[in-house]
Design brief:
By secondary structure, the chain is an alpha/beta fold. It has a domain at about 1-170 and about 205-230 and about 265-280: Rossmann fold (3-Layer(aba) Sandwich), CATH 3.40.50.720. About 45% of the residues lie in helices and about 20% in strands. The chain is built from ten helices and 15 strands. The protein has helices at about 10-20, 50-55, 75-80, 80-100, 135-155, 175-185, 205-215, 235-245, 270-275, 285-315, and strands at about 1-5, 25-30, 40-45, 65, 105-110, 125, 160-165, 165-170, 190-195, 200, 205, 225-230, 235, 250-255, 265. The strands form five sheets. The chain has a seven-stranded parallel sheet, with helices on both faces. It has a two-stranded parallel ribbon with strand order 6-15. It has a two-stranded parallel sheet with strand order 8-11. Strand 1, helix 1 and strand 2 form a beta-alpha-beta unit. The longest helix has about 35 residues, at about 285-315.
Length: about 325
């Protein structure tokens, strides 16, 4: 079975590619950025705004994972028009390209549990009624979900929507809270917490998330929505304390709370457990430990490369 992954060079996408390949799938990446991992993967360079290039990338493909997106809410806030073009028009391009290629039997769309941000309920699942989103990022993800559902109803396309919790782990973007805290701790800088730090999230280790994506190709998942969230409620304070526990000798500082900070929702992933056999396996502390080990290795490789370049320049001079 051949699978195309849009955004396959990114944080989550690269792990989905790894997991698919490990499970025996033939994988092709469609991305603007060359993959830094597993050079042996077939790669098509292009934008999801380029419908013709997308169509070419889908030739001979049985399923499409659509993960390419502007995923940082800060980037969406600062560049709303561009974010809309990638997150919304990019999605309809993927769906349209898949519609015109009859070989594509399934489209798996990467959404987010942040679609529940404005719900009245604090305990939510896939059946919880959603309310108009207050953030542009959430609006783009919901719009894309609706496009997927419309293509399913109008054209008989099989789609699966996966609502991700907050991912963390190796290759994570540096702007996320775990990478920020780890980077500061290793530099000897204090970890800053806004307010009392009791606002919580349910983080999901990226390899667990990738496993859930592979399971989404099961027949039962056709035209379904699944939450893939972590098990543990983890407060911002706990994140800082976990990093301190692993690295040691880290100072934690508190500053005034930010107005309107989201306190979190209790998102149920029971449907994914029941129908797909999925549940997160890596504990938060173990996941942070794995991320720190990966981060240290990358930094050591960077230092070694700089030393090699410096020696080369010295020799040339």
């Amino acid at each position: 079975m051949k699978v195309l992954v849009t955004g396959g060079s990114g944080f989550i996408g690269s792990h989905v590619v790894d997991k698919l390949r490990d499970k025996g799938f033939e994988v092709r990446i469609y991305d603007m950025v060359l993959p830094s991992i597993r050079k042996d993967i077939e790669f098509y360079q292009g934008s999801i705004l380029d419908l013709e290039s997308l169509g070419m990338a889908m030739m001979g493909v049985d399923a499409v994972y659509h993960l390419a997106a502007i995923a940082d809410v800060k980037d969406v806030f600062e560049r709303p028009h561009y974010a809309e073009s990638i997150n919304v028009r990019g999605t309809i391009n993927v769906l349209e390209a898949a519609r015109t290629h009859q070989n594509v039997k399934r489209v798996v769309y990467a959404s987010t549990t942040w679609v529940y941000s404005d719900t009245i309920e604090t305990n939510v699942d896939e059946t919880t009624p959603l309310r108009p989103p207050s953030h542009l990022y959430t609006a783009t993800k919901l719009t894309s979900e609706y496009y997927c559902q419309a293509y399913s109803k109008l054209y008989g396309m099989n789609v699966t929507i996966m609502r991700y919790g907050i991912p963390y782990g190796p290759r994570a973007r540096g702007a996320a809270v775990v990478p920020i805290f780890v980077s500061k701790a290793l530099k000897g800088e204090p970890l800053t917490i806004a307010g009392d730090g009791l606002q919580f999230r349910k983080f999901v280790y990226v390899e667990d998330l990738a496993e859930g994506n592979v399971l989404a190709l099961k027949s039962i998942a056709k035209n379904k929505i699944y939450n893939l969230d972590g098990k543990e409620k983890v407060s911002i304070k706990q994140i800082a304390e976990t990093v301190k526990k692993i690295i040691g000798n880290v100072k934690i500082e508190y500053i005034p709370a930010r107005p309107g900070d989201f306190s979190g929702k209790e998102v149920s992933s029971e449907l994914a457990k029941k129908e797909l056999g999925w549940e997160p396996k890596v504990s938060f502390e173990e996941g942070v430990r794995r991320y720190i080990n990966w981060y240290k290795k990358v930094e050591q490789e960077k230092e070694a490369e700089w030393a090699r370049l410096d020696n080369t320049l010295r020799t040339q001079l």
